[in-house]
Each structure stands twice: as C-alpha cells, then as structure tokens.
C-alpha cells in the first residue's frame, strides 16, 4: 500500500494547516484543555482520512482481451441503454460506478488498446449519482479501440464534492488494461459506454473493484 502522487501536495498543505491550527489553539486557549484536545483529535482523524483517501493499493493483473474490467472502485448505480451524445452519437449500454469518498480513487483502463479520443469539459457540480451528471458535470472522456476493433468509451465525472479530474490519457497512445487512466479527487463517478449487445456480468448496486471485478465480456 502506498500514497498516490496526486495526494502529495494536499497531504503536505493539509498537515501544515492542521499543525498551524493546533499551535494557535495551544497559544490562545491553552487553559481550555477539553477544546484543545478536541481540536487535536479532530486534526488527527482528518489527516488519517486524507491518507486513506489517497491510498494506492497494488492491483496487479494479467490483461485479458475478452474481458472488460471495472475502471474504478465503487457501487454500480446505472446499467441501461442510453444515447451517447458526445462521441458515438448512438445508443450504447451505459454502466456507471459511483465512488464515495471512502473508495480508492485511482481510475484504470478497463481494456487494452489504442486511444482514439480524449476530451475534457468543464461543467456543473451536481451529485455524481444524478442521471444528468454524465452530461452536465465537469468530465473527461476517453475512447479506447481494442485490438478487435471494438470502441469503449470511459468517462470520468466529477461530483458535488470533487473539484478536480486528472486524466493521463493522450490521443494515439497505446494503453494496457489495468494501467492508471487518471484520478478524481473527493467523490465522483466513472461511466463506461459499451456496444449494444455486450454481455454484462454484474448486477445493479453491485460493489466493484478496479482491476478485480469483471464488468462485461467483449
């Protein structure tokens, strides 16, 4: 278990701010021990949460050309046929995974292949489980073409708390199933758009893990 590189700056600044708060508390309310110890306790809990949020567990896997793995940890909140309006502009099967602040937030490539399209869109801050969040919130879209020619769209969607989407993908890049696609900070959602007829392997409200849970078969 290690700490994700996206968390280094937040952890450093968070530690310094919490340290300053506790130093000021020790100076100005030194005689109010209960309040001072309460601030110290809350500071420790908050910093432990930040460490927990930016954890990066080892998720090694052997790529399988016939399988689509979960790109994120979380709960499956949508499995439905819907119109994908940005890239395909036709009907697709949408599978959406909601990540709470307690889930691991590193996003992974669900398939191996060649990146055909990458686009970032600024947007609103609706709750990530809202049906319109995939179209209206801050989001990043990545399309991967597999060796067999199937195109899979992965969309990182920021939620009401999330304030930054990080995407490592570049157009014309070859990527390996299970490698890091990006990171979303503090609660979010990842959508996958699959061809109609794709065999879905998981039920609605199922908890999935990136690189471990099989979403579908190509």
Can you describe what's shown?
21% of the residues lie in helices and 37% in strands. By secondary structure, the protein is of the alpha+beta class. It has 2 domains: 2-56; 67-217, Glucose Permease (Domain IIA) (Distorted Sandwich), CATH 2.70.70. The strands form 4 sheets. It has an 8-stranded antiparallel β-sheet. Strands 3-16-14 form a 3-stranded antiparallel β-sheet, with no helix packed on it. Strand 8 (139-145) and strand 9 form a beta hairpin. Helix 1 runs antiparallel to helix 2. It is elongated, with a radius of gyration of 20 Å. The relative contact order is 0.21. The model has no long low-confidence stretch (mean pLDDT 89).
Name the features.
218 residues, alpha+beta, Glucose Permease (Domain IIA), 2 domains, eight-stranded antiparallel β-sheet, three-stranded antiparallel β-sheet, 21% helix
* Euclidean distance between termini CA atoms: 31 Å
Strand order of the largest sheet: 11-7-8-9-13-5-4-15
Indicate the structural class.
Answer: alpha+beta
CATH superfamily of the largest domain: Glucose Permease (Domain IIA)
Here the CATH topology of the largest domain equals Glucose Permease (Domain IIA)
Q: State the name of the first-level CATH class of the largest domain.
A: Mainly Beta
Task: Give the helix tally.
Answer: 3
CATH architecture of the largest domain: Distorted Sandwich
Nearest-integer average pLDDT? 89
What's the number of extended β-strand segments?
Answer: 16
Strand content: 35-45%
- Sheet of most strands: 8 strands, antiparallel
**Could you give the order of the helices and strands?**
EHHEEEEEEHEEEEEEEEE
The coarse overall form would be: elongated
User: Uncertain regions: pLDDT < 50 for 5+ in a row?
Assistant: none
């Amino acid at each position: 278990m290690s700490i994700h590189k996206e968390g280094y700056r937040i952890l450093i600044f968070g530690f310094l701010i919490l340290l300053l708060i506790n130093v000021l508390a020790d100076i100005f309310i030194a005689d109010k021990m209960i309040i001072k110890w309460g601030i110290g306790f809350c500071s420790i809990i908050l910093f432990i949460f930040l460490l927990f949020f930016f954890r990066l567990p080892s998720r090694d896997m052997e790529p399988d050309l016939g399988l689509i793995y979960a790109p994120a940890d979380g709960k499956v909140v949508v499995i439905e046929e819907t119109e994908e309006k940005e890239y395909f502009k036709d009907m697709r099967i949408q599978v959406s995974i909601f990540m709470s602040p307690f889930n691991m937030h590193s996003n992974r490539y669900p398939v191996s292949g060649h990146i055909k399209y990458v686009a970032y869109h600024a947007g609103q801050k609706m709750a990530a489980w809202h049906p319109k969040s995939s179209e209206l919130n801050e989001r990043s879209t990545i399309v991967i073409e597999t060796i067999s020619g199937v195109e899979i769209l992965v969309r990182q969607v920021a939620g009401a708390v999330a304030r930054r989407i990080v995407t490592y993908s570049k157009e014309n890049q070859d990527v390996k199933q299970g490698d890091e696609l990006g990171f979303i900070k503090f609660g979010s959602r990842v959508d996958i758009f699959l061809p109609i007829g794709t065999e879905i392997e998981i039920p609605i409200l199922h908890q999935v893990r990136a690189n471990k849970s099989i979403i579908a078969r190509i």
